[in-house]
Design brief:
The protein is of the alpha/beta class. It folds into two domains: 222 residues, Alpha-Beta Barrel (TIM Barrel), CATH 3.20.20.70; 77 residues, no CATH class. Helix 11 packs antiparallel against helix 12. The mean pLDDT is 94.
Length: 314
């Protein structure tokens, strides 16, 4: 499956794992890289020293390329970037900020940079900043999302029409069929997050993994738009949030309900009642928790079978 993304990152398959908070530790990243994709360590939920530890463990667990995902709203981002350079990480995915802030610095250090965007406008800004690829994430995705609420399969061809750099599709993709559909629409690769949440190697709590495998269509919703749009599983905390919204709350009142470490409580510590549970709409098609290797085998097998079925005569 050689193309410009597999060449850019030196990977076997054009499959990239989302660098998710509380989920994407060294075990998941190394397993994805060993399976032929690109694993990403999620720096967003890590103190600088913890990130260094995960990078070092990942280097011992795989001899394949891996990267680090860095939300640029991180309060200690300078320390994070110093560690990435010091540890010799060669691939960085940035998000939640202006790509011009760090792209030049990282590329001067010989690092390949991709940036996550939710619109054509931001894709063009990322290209202008000098990134090597853009991740175009539709609002089907879990975690933090774009305010435009553009769907992945609408966003991909619109971005592809405007930029010259490789395009990675993200949001609502968790199968071989979804991967093929995204590539038919112009994506050079896919980034999958939710499917890798429900794997043995993910650092998510088993309660959260099990919850993801049990929910169905319509059991997630985009909310918290006043702060930063995020897609959540509908649980007791979500219901409390809706009750508060009915009272026309201020941002401060919403922040007060959210409190501190609410996402950690849900996804990492396993409180699926009162925690913030971030996951994508594709969770309705995730029915089990399995090893990363099996996920890859299923995705690649389905991709090839469907491709052969529909495009064998082309």
């Amino acid at each position: 499956m050689k193309n410009n993304i597999t060449t850019l990152f030196n990977i076997k398959y054009p499959i990239i794992q989302g660098g998710m908070i509380w989920v994407s530790g060294w075990k998941l990243a190394s397993a994805v890289s060993n399976a032929g994709g690109l694993g990403l360590i999620g720096a967003g939920s890590m103190y600088p020293d913890v990130l260094r530890e995960h990078i070092q463990k990942c280097k011992k667990a795989t001899d394949k390329p891996f990267g680090v995902n860095v939300p640029m709203l991180y309060p200690e981002i300078e320390k994070i970037m110093d560690i990435i350079v010091d540890e010799g990480v060669k691939i960085v995915f940035t998000s939640a900020g202006n790509p011009k802030t760090w792209t030049s610095y990282l590329k001067e250090k010989g690092i390949t940079v991709a940036h996550v965007v939710s619109s054509v406008k931001f894709a063009l800004k990322a290209e202008d900043a000098g990134v090597d690829a853009v991740v175009c994430e539709g609002f089907e995705a879990g975690g933090h999302n774009g305010r435009e609420e553009t769907t992945t399969f609408t966003l991909i061809p619109m971005v592809k029409e405007q930029v010259k750099i490789p395009v990675i599709a993200a949001g609502g993709i968790g199968s071989g069929r979804g991967m093929l559909a995204a590539m038919v629409l112009g994506a050079d690769a896919v980034q999958m997050g939710s499917r890798f949440v429900a794997t043995k190697e993910s650092s998510a709590h088993i309660n959260f993994k099990q919850k993801v495998s049990e929910i169905g269509e319509g059991e997630t919703q985009l909310t918290l738009k006043e702060l930063a749009p995020v897609r959540l599983i509908k649980n007791h905390f979500f219901d409390e949030l809706q009750i508060l919204y009915a009272q026309n709350p201020t941002k401060e009142e919403i922040k007060q309900l959210l409190g501190r470490a609410r996402a950690k409580k849900g996804m990492f510590e396993g409180d699926v009642t009162n925690g913030e549970l971030e996951i994508g709409q594709i969770s309705g098609l995730i029915h089990d928790v399995k090893p990363v290797k099996e996920v890859f085998e299923e995705v690649i097998l389905e991709f090839n079978e469907v491709k052969r079925l529909f495009f064998s005569d082309l």
